[in-house]
Amino acid sequence: MDLDRIFLGKFLKEMFLDTIKVKFWDGTEEKYGDGEAKFEIILNSHISKKDILTDPFLTLGEAYMDKTIDLKGNIMELLESIYKNKESFLNKADVFSKIYKVLPNTLKKSKEDIQYHYDLGNDFYSLWLDKTMAYSCAYFKDKNDSLYQAQINKVQYILKKLNLKDGQRLLDIGCGWGELIISAAKQYGVNALGITLSKEQFEKVKYRIKENNLEGKVDIKLADYRELVKNKETFDRIVSVGMIEHVGRKNLPTYMESVNSMLRDGGVSLLHCITAQTESEVNEWIKRYIFPGGYIPSIRELVSLMADNDLHLVDAESLRLHYYKTLKCWAKNFEDKMDEVRKMKDEKFIRMWDLYLNACAASFHYGVVDIHQFLFTKGLKNNLPMTRKYLYED
Fold it and tell me: Which intervals hold domain DUF7884 (predicted)?
């Protein structure tokens, strides 16, 4: 009697909301659920019961990367089927997070972690991102917006929320490939500084600044936000898009203290980030293969830290379904460019990345994460618009 096979059959039977067919390594097949199977799972070899019980995220993620598991059907919909089943392991991440070892995000480690993910090559990212090279949640004002238009919308939306004025100094913490700081300088006349720990992003932004004749108006530094604090730099506006997820839970107070320290009295800051409903560590598969050092803060953690630093929350907005749609676009672009990706990356990396993009899309659609934009001020500020009307005017 194959105990691993018996366990896996029971485990898979209880995992999905939809009907599935499973083909085991011994050639036998089983169908779980009523009616026609929506997905087929092929198990090419044994998967240890002990490994699954210890950490199903890591075990199944690695099994897919190594081709121990193959899938037939839409991978995003398959993952959504697991999320829709509230008893599945995907909805119980906090149970497994207790086993994860958390290392402090020192300056050195933060730099290494960022470069691990973002220095995969500008050529790689340009294959499936839009031409703005924005690698964060877009904003779909209209259901028919292209990914490019939605990323332009996102930048414009953030700049409006910041209520920028000519001559102000703007800091973008984790500026990516520079679309926001370049747009801010061109449209609002601000003096913008972007910082990143990615060498690839740094070089690309330098090129874009020169290309747009913005030397002296826009600057880019290969630096950590904590280094700016040491230099006692200050700003009228501070924005961060998709960066705080990299600082680690232990450094969240440091991040908010740093923003408070750098923001001038009456200044405005916008934080755009993935959020969790409750506090738990990111699963080990994501931390090991995609975002080392990552942590998704809860809404209450962030709001509490704002209050601790006398930063006043003005507005909070969920963009969860916008990120689902963004990730769906990225996953499709990635899969459409698979032939070109194969010229750059091996099969294990491709399966890993395809799983990551589709899993994230499923997670924002039916899962356990959200994304918010928080707008807050240093001290009370009475001259911001009293309604959101200005945000929706062209």
Answer: 7-93
